[in-house]
Prior knowledge:
275 residues, membrane, Aquaporin-like
Amino acid sequence: MNSEDVKLVKPDALGPAEIEAKAETLAVGKTKMTPAKTFVAAMLAGAFIAFGGMYFCVFLGDSTMPFAAQRMVGGICFCLGLVLVLCCGCELFTGNSLMVAAKASGKISWGQMLKNWGIVWVGNLVGSLLAVFLIYMAQVYMLNSGGVGTAMVGVAAGKVALAPETMFFKGIMCNIFVCLAVWIGFGARTTVDKVIGILLPISAFVAAGFEHCVANMAFLPMGLLLNTVAGVGTPGAVTLGGVALNLAIVTLGNVVGGGLVGIAYWFTYGKREQA
């Protein structure tokens, strides 16, 4: 093996400055995707996060589990969603909050960033709703004698019952953890690196009950569907107005949380001369 081969083989993860530079490069690439490709990639991400939410609720369907074990293992189950997003390649609204680093460096414009966010948010919603339809038609909610459906409605009802300011700050906290997980993924060189790096941040935000707008695009419609159509849970526990309010406020909180991570790392490791 010559010196050139040695340079090519780098099993170690990227350093913080390298990750920040990669985040900016990826953001520029996102703005150059066609709207149609961005939308389809976003639909995939929405569906993948919904699958993680489904896995989480299947585990929660066993009400005999102690609280701590339920939250910890349920959080690990939910990691399926972001593992699929990062390893399979698609567009996730919350992760794209990190595009603020490229905006701060002047590599993309406000218009390009906001256009991407708008397309991706809608694409995530459509993908989530398609996944909800598939999960509902597959009658996953009937598992454990309907215990999974009860858990699904319970999760949704708990989210819509939160006070608006609580939703907002839970949204901030959530996307700090999500974007840190994505940041670790940017620095990873192998699939194993990405998966292991994702586990702790994502399971932590789930265990703590923070609010993720894309996950809620599946949790809340599923809870609404089961509550109003299938008659699961207390009537009126999940309403359309409650779903809309939660998504709006949590989205804003997620943008703030992700933006804090992106700007902090840009300020610390970005190249000032690019600004």
